[in-house]
Amino acid sequence: MKFNRKSVAVHVFAAAFLTMWLASPTEAQVTKKAPAKKVQPQFLPPEVNESLPNVLLIGDSISIGYMLDARKQLAGEANVWRPATNCGPTTTGLKSLDAWIGDTKWDVIHFNFGLHDLKYMGPQGKNLADPAAKTSAPQVSIDDYAENLRKIAKRLKATGATVIWRETTPVPEGARGRVPGDSKRYNEVAAKVMAEVGGIEIDPMYEIAVANANLQKKADVHYTPEGSAKLAEQVAKTVRTALAARAK
Q1: Would you say the pTM of this structure is higher than 0.90?
Q2: Is the keyword Endoplasmic reticulum in the record (predicted)?
Q3: R_g of the chain computed on alpha carbons
Q4: What residue segments make up the domains of the chain, in order of their start?
Q5: pLDDT digits (tens, 9 = 90+) for 84-97
Q6: pLDDT per residue over 102-126, tens digit each?
């Protein structure tokens, strides 16, 4: 039997095309893409003015709460940024610090870690466990906290920015998974670390927060919008003073 090469080629092409057509999803089968997740406004970059200094705020949800107010209060004075995430405990800071710093020339870096370090965790990563339970413990022990902070502070200083340590705000009575008084203990350790590293300013946020305890949510480490605005005033004041000192 003789084969017609042209005929065979046509049949092969037709078979391949049919296979591809059958394998291709129909319009009804195509899964619609999920809508893009909305980015929190606190995580969006500022409208950059190249003539202004750059300020980086690092911290957990307390700093997320005061971010927009701090940026507003420093409008026209600085480009105010923060990592697009909750910066969590010092262990996360050590892993993520280089990415957060990036290649931006920072003039001031205002940072805090604490409330996530001192919160209690239970077996299998249970979050905000009962501090009284024998199976629970702080997410980061106070000794490890000191060592982690030391490394973080040195890395931040190496950027050439003016570095400001912001004290951890209080834990109120009834707050789940945390012990009132631990913020003060961790702050005392942090103050010693900053003194050892040297050249790091302190933002006395703990005192400001205590003086405005009525603006903190009941049995909750977080603040009302008015409370976050009050904390932002302190952040802006501290950053403004640092920028003025650099300008001399």
Answers
A1: no
A2: no
A3: 26
A4: 33-247
A5: 999 999 999 999 99
A6: 999 999 999 999 999 999 999 999 9
